[in-house]
Amino acid sequence: MASGEIIYPGKIGVPYEWSVGEYGSRFFYELKEKRKIWATRCSRCKKVFIPPRKSCPDCFVHIGEWLEVGPGGNLITFTIVRYSAQTHIISAPFAMGIIQLDGSDTGLVHLIGGVDIEEIRSGMRVRPVFKEERKGNLLDIIYFTPLERTS
Ligand SMILES: [Zn+2]
After folding, report:
1. Cα(99) to centroid(ligand 1), Å
2. Distance between CA atoms of residues 117 and 138, nearest Å
3. pTM of the entire structure?
């Protein structure tokens, strides 16, 4: 770097669009139109993937079987975000968790809400709360909320 070099910070906004693909489209369609959460199951190892996968990362085979999972699930783990950032979809503090939906073998990352964040515990039973007006993305689920109070 040359001595005295002047550097100005800048930002550019670039509009773009991308396809979520065949499996992503079916997954988001079911969320939007039916409030259902669908997964795929490997024909060889029987592992159920959510979000749905088109191929098994363990068996390297194509996956063609679909099944509905949840809506209930177990909160495997979570974290509480206590700072705000421009990239966050809601203001801090809020909780993010990994939910293993009933019938699935993998975890889905989502917000945990409708509960005092200090009451959230790993192992809690949770269910999705859907938006009334859905757009066909993962935020059609507002958050996962405990099925019952813990205290
Ligand atoms: Zn497999």
Report:
1. 21
2. 21
3. 0.85
